[in-house]
Specification:
By secondary structure, the protein is mostly helical. 55% of the residues lie in helices and 0% in strands. Helix 1 runs antiparallel to helix 2. The N and C termini lie far apart (69 Å). The chain has a domain at 8-66.
Length: 130
């Protein structure tokens, strides 16, 4: 069993546990001072639920401090393998942009019915003629 110094999350869990415990005490006190039995029961059951949540926060924080694997600066993450080339990258070398543009202009919706104007030929760098 090794001790891990508490980090921000562990400290927040402890603070949440103490806050829930304080709220549970206040609800229990309100239940003691209530006049009707139904109201007293509601306050006491609510206090019990909050107390159980506080205990769960404390247990979780203790687990993080004593039973988690220690993380030190000497431990490094496993190196990530570089991605392997996919078939699509191999096909890019043989890609013909003029043929793809011609195929797109041929298959556009409305081109067959004559609604769209005839495509202009590409005009220089960056296909400014489109």
């Amino acid at each position: 069993m090794a001790f891990n110094p508490p980090g921000f999350r562990t400290i927040m869990l402890l603070a949440l546990g103490f806050g829930l415990r304080t709220l549970s005490k206040a609800l229990e006190r309100a239940g003691d001072l209530a006049g009707e039995p139904g109201t007293r029961l509601f306050h006491h059951v609510s206090a019990l639920v909050l107390l159980i949540a506080a205990v769960a926060c404390f247990i979780w924080a203790l687990k993080r401090m004593f039973f988690d694997r220690p993380r030190g600066p000497e431990e490094k993450a496993a190196p990530v393998a570089p991605p392997k080339p996919v078939e699509i990258y191999l096909e890019e070398a043989s890609f013909d942009s003029d043929a793809a543009l011609a195929r797109y202009m041929r298959n556009r919706t409305g081109a067959a019915s004559g609604d769209l104007p005839a495509p202009k030929p590409p005009g220089g760098f960056g296909r400014k003629g489109l």
